[in-house]
Design a protein that fits this description.
This protein is α/β, with parallel strands linked by helices and 183 residues long. The chain has 6 helices and 5 strands; from the N terminus they run H-H-E-E-H-H-E-H-E-E-H. Strand 3, helix 5 and strand 4 form a beta-alpha-beta unit. The structure holds zinc ion.
């Protein structure tokens, strides 16, 4: 009996830790999708884009995925969420993305939060908070505003450490690059 307890203890503490770090309302699928979004963000960083990735999914099927491509396209709306919404709309054959969830590594800005409302997204799962533009929890609450014609479930803080670290590393490297660049 004692032996049994000692072998199950490490497993149990690992599971408890994982459950504790799982934000309320997040599912296993949300966690998996966030990992994919993080991989997209890493690819964006390698291309010199601000590392943000987004995945839109419904019933286990990925409908659209994208990363920030503002530098490559020169398009001010080139945020990961907008690009993922465009891809998902093509996949479903219409603008209405009812029943869909989006996993995005950074808290959406006002433009993207507005686009999610317009697309009738059902659930938003995001990673790190954005102190400068976050329009879901930090500066505004556009995704749950009762004055708008659509609201969604919001689950923030999923894998927030990894999502945030990607951004801080990217900006630190960029600052260093600017400092060392001959003027
Ligand atoms: Zn945005």
């Amino acid at each position: 009996m004692r032996g049994n307890t000692s072998t199950s203890a490490p497993w149990r503490s690992r599971t408890m830790r994982r459950l504790r770090s799982l934000p309320r309302g997040a599912t296993r699928e949300d966690i998996d999708m966030m990992r994919r979004a993080i991989a997209l963000a890493e690819q964006a960083a390698a291309r010199g884009e601000v590392p943000v990735g987004a995945i839109i999914y419904r019933a286990g099927v990925v409908l659209g995925e994208a990363s920030n491509d503002r530098e490559a396209t020169g398009d001010p709306t080139g945020h990961a969420e907008v690009a993922a919404l465009r891809a998902a709309s093509v996949a479903v054959g219409g603008w209405r993305l009812s029943g869909c969830s989006i996993a995005v590594t950074l808290e959406p800005c006002p433009m993207c939060a507005g686009a999610l409302v317009n697309a009738r997204i059902e659930r938003l799962v995001y990673g790190a908070r954005d102190p400068k533009a976050g329009a879901v929890d930090t500066l505004y609450d556009l995704c749950r505003d009762p004055r708008l014609n659509h609201r969604m479930e919001v689950i923030g803080g999923v894998d927030r450490i990894r999502c945030g670290r990607l951004l801080t590393r990217f900006f630190r490297a960029r600052r260093q690059e600017r400092r060392t660049r001959p003027s």
